[in-house]
Amino acid sequence: MEFKAKIMDNKAIDRSLMRLAHEIIERNRGIEKVVLVGIKSRGIPLANRICDKIALIENQRVPVDQLDITMYRDDLTLKSDRPEVKESALNIPIDGKTIILVDDVIYTGRTVRAAMDALMQQGRPSQIQLAVLVDRGHRELPIRPDFVGKNVPTSSKENVKVKIVEIDGMDEVCIYQK
Ligand SMILES: O=P(O)(O)OC[C@H]1O[C@H](OP(=O)(O)OP(=O)(O)O)[C@H](O)[C@@H]1O
Ligand SMILES: O=c1cc[nH]c(=O)[nH]1
């Protein structure tokens, strides 16, 4: 993969996450029923950071949970003949809650659809909303994020790579040519 451009640095990521925190509070008129759920690898530290930002603003922490949706990907069979089925149980009851799914990138929307499937198997949230750091377009399903850090028009021949300190040792978003 060939490097093309850095589109967000650590400051841009931080400002976006702060704005997302404000927007989540505003849209939900507070945080009373809000639960953040990070999707697998990089959605999890992002959900924790949004939680920290909300706490700075509201002086109260919202619950944070996580989903590993590997077994629910509807194209899993394309990746492996005999997929390992991973458990993906939440620790927090979600009935009646406003769940904010958090992920780093939305592309086809298949990961989010799978995450919603996993959520619905575990309870009945009153609402599910979606926050992503980057929306790169090319949706294959009727799914649209409620909160977007940055809209990045891309070609399908490109790849968007988010790096997060907690996992990658640095914060940045770059575009690569496949
Ligand atoms: O909208 P989609 O087409 O489903 O793509 C978006 C997903 O792809 C990436 O995950 P990836 O499968 O690369 O795994 P990773 O996060 O563990 O790197 C990204 O983190 C999203 O979860
Ligand atoms: O470009 C892409 C597509 C899917 N997921 C990513 O993280 N980047």
Brief descriptors of the model:
binds uracil, alpha/beta, 31% helix, three-stranded antiparallel β-sheet, 5 helices, five-stranded parallel β-sheet, single chain, binds 1-O-pyrophosphono-5-O-phosphono-alpha-D-ribofuranose, 178 residues
Polypeptide structure, described:
This protein is α/β, with parallel strands linked by helices and 178 residues long. Helix content is 31%, strand content 29%. It has five helices and eight strands; from the N terminus they run βαβαβαβαβββαβ. The chain has helices spanning 10-27, 40-58, 76-79, 110-120, 165-168; strands at residues 2-8, 34-39, 64-67, 98-106, 127-135, 147-151, 158-163, 172-177. A five-stranded parallel β-sheet has the order 3-2-4-5-6. It has a three-stranded antiparallel β-sheet with strand order 1-8-7. The protein is globular. The model has no long low-confidence stretch (mean pLDDT 92). 1-O-pyrophosphono-5-O-phosphono-alpha-D-ribofuranose (PRP) is lined by residues 39-42, 103-111. It comes from Fusibacter paucivorans. Its EC number is 2.4.2.9. InterPro entries: PRTase-like, PRTase_dom, PyrR, PyrR_bifunctional. It holds the Pfam family Pribosyltran.
